[in-house]
Amino acid sequence: MVKKTSVGIIGAGKIGKLHINNLVTMNEVNIRAISDVYIDQMSDWVNTLDVKYTTKNYMEIVNDPDIDAILVCTPTKLHSEIVIAAAEKKKHIFCEKPISFNLEDSLKVLDAVKKAGVIMQVGFVRRFDRNFRQVHEIVKSGKIGTPHIIHIFSRDPEPAPRKYVRHSGGMPFDMTIHDFDMIRYLTQFEVEEVYAQGSVLIDPFFEECNDVDTAVFTLRFTNGAIGVVDNSRRAEYGYDQRVEVFGSKGSVSIKNDTNHTVEVITKDGTLSDKPKWFYLERYNDAFKEELRSFLNCVTTGTEPTVSAYDGLQAELLAHAATISLQEKRPVKIQEVLKQTDLRLRDH
């Protein structure tokens, strides 16, 4: 009989509960413990789960010798300290994005993970979406030649709650970081410069938070190719998730996912379904697949599809984009790297 992977989850908010509810459907895993500071308020939900224990103190999970892997689903400000503690106890780690808001803290995480020899996967769920994965494979095969221009459209149907926005790190760390990871995943290129232009067109509250709700990010890759990321916090028609990679021999693109492909054609025009409403619907299958992939890495010892290094690279672009928004100028990645003494080369 194959031994099940024993897992502890730290953080049982919206994303933590999503992962837990997906894990209970998987035969290869045993949920041993859940930690959350508000766990006492979740008794009705917890009682539906087969969990050994719950705790408010996440160190109980970190120190539990019967736990093989830990999911870190807390607010970002706690990620680095939890991951480092878990790595020191030789736990494999799945951490939601971003690793942290601070490059030095994230580098400490990578150092700890490398020293411990454990697996760390970062929660960039879109890599596990069947459509994005197919584009990745097509580009990798050379079918469209060398990528020249990459467009990503990523628009939410409505802004996140204000309480969340205040501590989100701003659009580059909250929204665009997914697109920064995706653009690297699709092209396998590294970025050398970021230029961001943003506005507040939806809700003045974002200006109070020194944030934007509408933005375009232009990226120049080291080989001269160009990427464009188009973000909005409110698309009235639903969750807009499209991409096009244009290459020297052709192009490949993704349309929005809809609940059905029925089209009604009359003398007044063509009517089809709107995009799925939000990420829970759009990436429902991908959320399950990323956990299966992580568990497989834990079992087989293989490298994860989204490594800690990938997480750090996306974070690096988010820092560059933040500076660009604030100072209204292009920002070289080397400029941001100087803050880390170029230690990225060690990873």
TrEMBL record:
- Domain Gfo/Idh/MocA-like oxidoreductase N-terminal: residue ranges: 6-124
Listed Gene3D superfamilies: Dihydrodipicolinate Reductase, domain 2, NAD(P)-binding Rossmann-like Domain
| Pfam assignment, any one | GFO_IDH_MocA
Coiled coil segments of this chain:
none
Q: Which SUPFAM superfamilies match?
A: Glyceraldehyde-3-phosphate dehydrogenase-like, C-terminal domain (SSF55347), NAD(P)-binding Rossmann-fold domains (SSF51735)
Specify the GFO/IDH/MocA-like oxidoreductase domain's residue ranges.
132-252
Q: List the molecular function annotations (GO) for this entry.
A: nucleotide binding; oxidoreductase activity
Alphabetized, the UniProt keywords read: Oxidoreductase
Q: Which InterPro entries does its entry note?
A: Gfo/Idh/MocA-like_OxRdtase_N, GFO_IDH_MocA-like_dom, Myo_inos_IolG, NAD(P)-bd_dom_sf
Q: Which family does it belong to?
A: Belongs to the Gfo/Idh/MocA family.
PANTHER family linked: BINDING ROSSMANN FOLD OXIDOREDUCTASE, PUTATIVE (AFU_ORTHOLOGUE AFUA_2G10240)-RELATED (PTHR42840:SF3), NAD(P)-BINDING ROSSMANN-FOLD SUPERFAMILY PROTEIN-RELATED (PTHR42840)
Q: What is the name attached to this protein's record?
A: Inositol 2-dehydrogenase
Question: What is the protein's species of origin?
Answer: Novibacillus thermophilus
Q: What is the lineage of its organism?
A: Bacteria, Bacillati, Bacillota, Bacilli, Bacillales
